[in-house]
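Recall from the previous lesson that a structure prediction takes nothing but the amino acid sequence as input. Here we apply that procedure to VanZ-like domain-containing protein from Enterococcus innesii. The sequence below is the only information supplied.
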Amino acid sequence: MEFLYPFSMSFFPTSGSVDFVIPLIQILLITFYLYLFVQSFISGFFPKWAIYIFYIIYYLLLIYLLFFKNIGIQGIEWNPLMFIQDLLSAVVLLNIVMFIPNGFLFKFNKKNLLLFILVIFLVEISQYVFALGIFDFGDIFTNTCGFIIGSAISETPLFSNFKEKIR
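The prediction returns the following tokens.
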């Protein structure tokens, strides 16, 4: 709780006496997926519905973090290499990690990469136009790195073995 609570409150600020709900939901989801992970080793398969639930929760969280976390903030960061100063910060790592699951869904090729960059560029533009955050070229780069890492992981034999166990 010492790590999870302050970290989650930085992304999901609440007021009042219900600020334990978000960490509680996070703990329950982590526990549920750890249970499924252990059960998949015992039974030899992973339920397909759990993957669907994961991606529904993932995309809802992604929409929140991209469009609703910084309402009222507007700005532009023109320097695409500014993230290098903050390379070891949680924000840069989160920008990479939160787009890895998209790489699992889409194979790495020129068309998918260009489409992904276009979508991220449109997200960044909409953040600026509608005052939902800061347009940052570094975010485009780090999000694309997350997509590429996810695509690379999905091509490994270990991931192929995992895909065979999904039923």
